[in-house]
Amino acid sequence: MSSPPRPASVDFHLDLMCPYAYQTSLWIREVRARTGLEINWRFFSLEEINRAEGKKHPWEREWSYGWSLMRIGALLRRQGMDLLDQWYATAGRALHLDGEQPHIPEVAREILDRMGLDPGLVDAAIADPSTGEEVLAEHRRVTEAGGFGVPTLFFPDGQCLFGPVLIDPPVGERAEQLWDAVLAWTAFPHLYEIQRPKSRSDAEQIAAAFLPYLQARDWVSINRGSVVEFGGAR
Questions:
Q1: Which residue, 135, 103, 112, 110, is CA-closest to 217?
Q2: Tens digit of pLDDT for each residue in 97-147?
């Protein structure tokens, strides 16, 4: 049986606050650099999927961490996917590698300024209710497909996969090997799950890899028995 052909594009659903999605985004960017893959960045809200009963929805708050950062991204995307691409790369690095706090409005403004963009885009995005509507529509696309977290990939043929979940994104030829492995999964539409158990050593490596994120966050993670911990992919 031959491997599935490589698609020209993929939709990558993210929450800027998710450390696992960020690691996977580094890998998919490497795949893009090597193969010319087109990445369409889309959204998903961990705040909403993990919302406790009786608590406000993220769109009901004046400012709501990942939700608000994605609303800024939605506004930037209207000018071009490349701006959202830069926003995710810059804000993601700030949080997940440098331990900054882009989920604080003042820091978000500083990051936009660092990118050479108008810091007023933060306030413009929050003042425009349609940015929240865009984030919610893309969030629901995942949940309606049975999805529950990020990273979630949608392929041109309509298939949806959660993952890959990793902390050491491969580069070079190995990045392409992983991409082909993911694509091989799509040849089996009723293959639902393969999961590697995590040892204590694995947990220690994950904690070390996510230390900047863990130090920068201002919330307690929710773990509903997902395949990952630390408030990441679910």
A1: 103
A2: 999 999 999 999 999 999 999 999 999 999 999 999 999 999 999 999 999
**Helices 129-144, 65-77: crossing angle, 10 deg rounding:** 100
**pTM of the entire structure?**
0.92
Going 15 to 16 to 19 to 21, the CA torsion angle's sign is: positive
* The token pair that represents 54 in the structure block: 């009786």
Backbone angles phi, psi at 43, to 5 degrees: -120, 160
Domain ranges within the chain, ordered by starting residue: 9-216
Q: Which CATH superfamily is domain 9-216 in?
A: Glutaredoxin (3.40.30.10)
Estimate to the nearest angstrom the gap between the alpha carbon of 47 and the chain centroid.
13
Q: How far apart are CA 220 and CA 49, in angstroms?
A: 15
What's residue 217's pLDDT?
Answer: 84
Q: Which token pair is 151? A: 């990273």
Could you tell me the strand order of the sheet in which 160-162 lies? 38-43, 9-14, 152-154, 160-162
Do residues 75 and 68 lie in contact, with contact meaning Cβ atoms separated by under 8 Å?
A: no
